[in-house]
Specification:
Pfam families: Glyco_hydro_1. Belongs to the glycosyl hydrolase 1 family. Keywords: Carbohydrate metabolism, Cellulose degradation, Glycosidase, Hydrolase, Polysaccharide degradation. It comes from Undibacterium flavidum. The protein is of the alpha/beta class. The chain has a single domain, classed as TIM Barrel. It is built from 16 helices and 13 strands. The strands form three sheets. An eight-stranded parallel barrel has the order 1-2-3-4-5-7-10-11, surrounded by five helices. The chain has a three-stranded mixed beta sheet with strand order 6-8-9. Strands 12-13 form a two-stranded antiparallel ribbon. Helix 9 runs antiparallel to helix 10, helix 14 packs parallel to helix 15 and helix 15 packs parallel to helix 16. The two termini are 23 Å apart. 50% of the residues are buried.
Length: 465
């Protein structure tokens, strides 16, 4: 299938729910910091993102997530929407600063009670809860003590995991240890785009190792606390393209792949850290022991893949340490965020994982697009581009399944517009439009399509509205 834009009628033949198994998981993803708000309510204390938002110039619109979508108070309405769409699963994250607001190690009962109510609300609506334990909102007091660079943060994470899974494990069976450790490490500590905003490549590699180590150590804790637990991790992965066939660009693509993809996949599957990355980045390597690398490879029940776009890589001799750069190729379809729209990239990525690594169930734990949505005079939000984005990516997903990739579920990013990290409220990814001034929720065209897709077996012309 071409990655060129398609019109509404062309999409009709692409995908139907009957293309997927009856037990396929259909869900949407959210994260605590991006939607909850209630930043100082019921004992919650600041995370590194609360602190980051206060630094001038870090958030493009100078906003913060003090209120966000006010999901902390409006969660019944939000879960109703997910249920009405026909979802059978709901991926959310737990805010560490709500559970442990200080360094005492004593859990905050009000924080635990909130997530207990939230999980009960999911179950009452037929939504299977998928909990992400870490989606970037590290308590600020831990960052003050060194953050993920400090080995002690791994121990603090394990205590947090133990308490949360003991409290909620009677109702939650699906657990994701970390969301996108690449972003935690590299955006947070190398390019400084994310909290805590450091620009230190050696620190970023140390953070990545401690995050991955905490993952490996957490898996047996979860399994001990939760009978029949299914445990995985969600990685942000990208199919890569060389900017040209030159030897320099091909080498650059290999180096970029080493850090972007294989640095996380290889140790998870028992191969250790990639030898080419270790050699090329020898002056920046974290403290790593063989036993720790073995722990990272604790067997998983599933792999979560977050897919958004491919990357085109060119050699950049003056850009250490990788000597690579991202190149934007003109003429390709892009989202409002500037990300390339490439459904075939999803299929290629999934095929690569299936071919290069041991067999494991895969879930698309995030996939979605940002556009500059507007409320029309009639109150509707006609996000046709996002609707077609979903259709085309689901078609690519089904192609991957037909080619033997063991994909068992799809989680759309996201249920609703939210605080989009360093972009503030400038980017909208939701199937539900949020008026952040009034907190009014409006289902977009893409949400209506998804509802019809999940409630009806075959896409029809009426579904396209």
């Amino acid at each position: 299938m071409s990655d060129k834009p398609v019109n509404a009628q062309d999409t009709l033949a692409l995908v139907a729910r009957t293309d997927f198994p009856a037990d396929f998981v259909w869900g949407c993803s959210t994260s605590s910091f991006q939607i909850e708000g209630a930043a100082a309510i019921d004992g919650r204390t600041p995370s590194i993102w609360d602190q980051f938002c206060q630094q001038p110039g870090k958030i493009r619109d100078s906003s913060d997530a003090t209120v966000a979508c006010d999901h902390y108070h409006r969660w019944p309405e939000d879960l109703d929407l997910a249920s009405q769409f026909g979802m059978n699963a709901y991926r959310f994250s737990i805010a560490w600063p709500r559970i442990f607001p200080d360094a005492s190690g004593v859990p905050n009962r009000l924080g635990l009670d909130f997530y207990s109510r939230l999980v009960d609300g999911m179950l009452e609506r037929g939504l299977t809860p998928w909990a992400t334990l870490y989606h970037w909102d590290l308590p600020q007091y831990l960052q003050d003590a060194g953050g993920w660079e400090n080995r002690a943060t791994v121990d603090a994470y394990l205590h947090y995991v133990d308490v949360v899974t003991r409290h909620l494990g009677d109702r939650i069976k699906h657990w994701i240890t970390h969301n996108e450790p690449w972003c935690t490490a590299m955006h947070g500590n190398w390019d400084g785009m994310h909290a805590p905003g450091k620009q230190d490549f050696k620190a970023a590699l140390q953070v990545s190792h401690h995050v991955m180590l905490s993952h490996g150590l957490a898996v047996p804790v979860i399994r001990a606390n939760v009978p029949a637990a299914k445990v995985g991790i969600a990685l942000s992965l990208h199919p890569l393209r060389a900017a040209s066939d030159s030897a320099a660009d091909l080498l650059a693509m290999q180096r970029h792949d080493g850090l972007r993809n294989r640095w996380f996949l290889d140790p998870l599957f028992g191969r250790g850290y990639p030898a080419d990355v270790l050699a090329h980045c020898a002056d920046y390597l974290p403290q790593i022991t063989a036993s720790e690398v073995d722990l990272i490879a604790t067997p998983l029940d599933f792999l979560g893949v977050n897919y958004y776009f491919p990357e085109t890589i060119a050699a950049a001799p003056d850009n250490p340490p990788l000597h690579t750069s991202l190149k934007e190729v003109a003429g390709r379809e892009r989202t409002g965020f500037g990300w390339e729209v490439a459904p075939d990239g999803m299929r290629e990525l999934l095929q690569r994982i299936a071919q290069d690594y041991p067999a494991i169930p895969i879930y698309l734990t995030e996939n979605g697009s940002s556009y500059e949505d507007q409320v029309e005079a009639d109150g509707s939000v006609q996000d046709t581009a996002r609707r077609d984005y979903f259709i085309r990516h689901l078609h690519a997903l089904q192609q991957a399944r037909q080619q033997g990739v063991d994909v068992r579920g799809y989680f759309a990013w996201s249920l609703m517009d939210n605080f989009e990290w360093a972009e503030g409220y400038l980017r909208r990814f939701g199937m539900v439009y949020i008026d952040f001034a009034t907190q009014q929720r409006t289902v977009k065209q893409s949400g209506h399509w998804f509802r019809n897709f999940l409630h009806q077996n075959v896409v029809s012309p009426l579904d396209m509205t």
